[in-house]
Hints:
Elements: E1 6-9, H1 19-32, H2 39-43, H3 50-60, H4 67-85, H5 97-106, E2 110-114, H6 120-126, E3 135-137, H7 150-159, E4 166-170, H8 173-181, E5 185-189, E6 200-202, H9 210-219
Helix pairs in contact: 1-4
Bound molecules: 6-O-phosphono-alpha-D-glucopyranose (G6P) and magnesium ion.
6-O-phosphono-alpha-D-glucopyranose is lined by residues 12, 22, 45-50, 53, 78, 115-119, 139, 172.
Amino acid sequence: MYTIKGCLFDMDGVIVDTAKHHFTAWKALAEELSIPFTSKDNEALKGLGRLDSLEKILQLGNLELNSNTKLKLMENKNSLYLELVRSMSEEDILPGVCGLIEELKVKGIGVCLGSSSRNASIILKNIGLFNLFDGVVDGNHLTFSKPDPEVFIKGAKILELSPSNCVVFEDAVAGVEAAKSGGFFALGVGDHKELDNADAVVSDLSKMNFSKLLEIVNRND
Ligand code: G6P
Ligand code: MG
C-alpha cells in the first residue's frame, strides 16, 4: 500500500493553461528572427526553462547568437508574455484543481508547486492560489531545468518528505522524466500516448479526488 504524504504540482498546463500565451510570445520572437515556428514546435518546449526553450527555437532556424542577444530576446519575450498573463484570474484555473488542492490540505497532505517558470509566483497570485501552497519552487530557485529532478527534489525537501511518498502532477514529457528520475510517482495529466513515460495518466483533473488518487497509485504497486 503506497502512502501519499505530499503532492507536487507543475503549474503551466496542470493548474492553468498558459501554453497559448507562451506560444504567442515565442511566435512573435520567432517571426522577428524569420524562424518558422508552429504550435507543434511549441509542444516540444513544454516544461523546459526559458533559455532551453530559446535554444530550441534558434536550432529550428539554424541560428547561433551571442549571450547578450539571447538575454535581450528573452527579456522581450517575457515582457510580452507578462502582458498576456496579466489579465489571468481565478476563472483561468483548470477544472478540478481548486477542489483537489483544498481536499489535500484538509487531509494534511503537503502541497507544493514545482514549476520551471520564473513567473510562477506572479501567476499564482493573479489566480488567487499562492497562499494555498505549502511551498513554491520555480525557475528562480533552479540550477537545472526539467528533465532534471532538482525542482521536485527541492519541493520534497520543503515538505520534509521522501520522494517515494509524493505524487508529481505533470503535463510535460520533460516533467514526467524529472519526476521519475527523482523517485516520485509521476502522474501525467494530458494525452496518454504523449505521456507514456508516466506511472499513470489522466486526461485532466476535473474528476480527481484523494481516494481516486490512492486508487491510481496503488493500482501501479
Ligand atoms: C514552464 C512552461 C514552459 C516555459 C517555462 C519557463 O515549464 O511549460 O513552456 O518555457 O515554464 O517559463 P517562464 O515563465 O520562466 O518563461
Ligand atoms: Mg507544464
